[in-house]
Each structure stands twice: as C-alpha cells, then as structure tokens.
Write a structure and sequence with these properties.
226 residues, mainly beta, eight-stranded antiparallel beta barrel, 9% helix, globular
C-alpha cells in the first residue's frame, strides 16, 4: 500500500553533505501533479502506421515505484502499469504491468549554484536500465538516458536556483529516457513527484508508545466501589 506523505515534508529534509536538500534515502515516486503517467516512450513497439505512444502510470492500482538515492547513484525501480495509449485510453491488448529498472551512476552531482541534483549531459547514454513486460511475451527493452540537447539527462529538485528555505513544496524529477529505436522528445518524457518513504522503526516507536500509554491508563483507571 502506498503512503503519500504531505508535500510539505520536502521542506524539512536536511541538506546532504554534497549540498543537496535530498538526503541519501529511499523515496517513492508518483506521477507529477496534473499528469496521468510518469514515463512516456514513443514507438516503444511499432504497432500502427502512426506514432505509437506508450505511457506508464506510476499511480495506477498495483503500481509501486521507488528511488534509492546514495551519494553517487540514483536507482529507479518498481512496477508500473502502461502500454499503448490511444485517444480512448490504454489499448487492452497492448497494456499491462511492466517492471522498470534504471540506474544513474555517471556524471551525477549537484547543479551549479543550486541544491538540485542532476545527471549532466556528459553522461548521456552511459546510464542504462530496462523495461520488461510482466504479461504476454515478457518482452524486455533496454533503456538509456538522453539529454535531448539539454544540459542534463535527469534533474531532481524544483528546477530553480533557490535555497532550501525558498524551495517549492513539491520535489520532482524530470529528464529523458530513450530506447533502442526511439527518437528524442523536446519535452521531458520522464516526469515524477518524489515522496520520502517513512522508516518502519518510526511506526514501531509510535506503536510502542501508544501501547504503553494504554497500559498506564488501564492500571490507574478509577476503581468502582459496589
């Protein structure tokens, strides 16, 4: 089950040692506000004579996408729902669940005069992953990052040159992912919202505290005299 924390949590994340406001941790990814998918790939599979657009929903029931962030890597992985997106919605014969797995380790750092994290364009094509069908023929497609002529292949933050105190409430990721037979898009085709995954130990501590309070209340309850 997904637990979406309030967006304002992003404002309380402490600055990491490398100058970013995102700490190394595990995060959960969602479609950006106002969008119906987190990843779009044109001509992933050639089905019609037109440009076939495949989109992948990070928020669909049964979907769950995570990001592991370390000081030197970004790992995006999980299950997405998607396929051929037509004017009438997803084609039932060309859609289902997919396994998404993508890692960035080359040209990763902080943006110039900013606290955003970026994968610089110098690393374009050197970071890779895969998208695998969990239905049908279990087709697996190799993915790579692309800059599409921009200074980065992925950017995490708000995209503005701001301090932590001035940052917007919603932390997002935008970038470009390409596949073997694709063509580059001018607009980012990877676009998601970032939320920190609460640590299980916090719930254990809260549960223990509530149990203790209940025991204390029971022990010192008023004694009824018949």
């Amino acid at each position: 089950m997904k637990i979406l924390l309030p967006a304002t949590l992003a404002l309380t994340l402490p600055l990491a040692a490398q100058g970013s406001f995102l700490d190394p941790a595990k995060y959960e990814l969602y479609n950006q506000t106002g969008t119906s998918y987190g990843l779009r790939l044109e001509e992933l599979i050639n089905i019609t004579n037109d440009v076939d657009s495949f989109t992948f929903d990070f928020d669909a029931p049964g979907a769950s996408v995570f990001m592991d962030l370390t000081a030197s890597t970004i790992h995006i992985y999980g299950t997405v729902f998607g396929g051929l997106n037509t004017e009438a919605g997803y084609d039932p014969l060309q859609s289902g669940f997919w396994d998404l797995d993508f890692s960035y380790s080359t040209a990763f750092g902080t943006a110039h005069n900013d606290d955003d994290l970026i994968v610089a364009a110098a690393g374009a094509g050197l970071n890779s992953g895969s998208l695998k069908q969990l239905y049908g023929t279990n087709l697996e497609i190799t993915l790579r990052d692309s800059s599409a002529g921009h200074p980065y292949t992925l950017r995490l933050g708000d995209g503005q040159q701001e301090t932590e105190e001035q940052a917007t409430a919603e932390v997002t990721g935008t970038g470009w992912i390409d596949h073997d037979d694709s063509f580059e898009l001018a607009e980012p085709n990877l676009s998601f919202k970032v939320a920190q995954v609460p640590e299980p130990k916090n719930y254990l501590i809260l549960g223990s505290f509530l149990t203790l309070m209940a025991l204390v209340a029971y022990r010192y309850r008023p004694t009824q005299i018949a």
